[in-house]
Amino acid sequence: MTTRWSLTIDCAHPAKLAAFWALALGYTAKPAPAGFGSWEEWFAHHEIPQDEWDQGAYLCDPDGVGPGVSLLQVPESKVVKNRLHLDVQVGGGRDTPWEARWPRVVEALEQLTAAGATVIRVDELQGRPDHVVMADPEGNEFCLV
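-> structure tokens emitted (145 positions)
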């Protein structure tokens, strides 16, 4: 039996970074929990102070397959390289032939740089580009494969 899991990203601006990751992953804003018409209703019901309501953002896979993503505001900024990163398999992953995969990676690269990501480097394998190491708008590393 597997264990359900989700990913939490520490950040300075949850809503802004959630918009970026929704684009990168094809995710959507997570709906309010059952029985509540909005997240604000849920926050109020659980007596969360109103000044904390914008300190998090929540994403979900619209197909219900992938893990949830939470983006939580923290006071400190990112200082060092991630020890864990996402491989965003926009090209279909390495099982997909390079000729089909690489144009998809390039398309996503252009879309995500326009949304605020930066390219750290393009790594090659056997003399041709294989994947792109990038950073999201707050500096968290990820790869496009």
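The first helix runs from residue 14 to 25.
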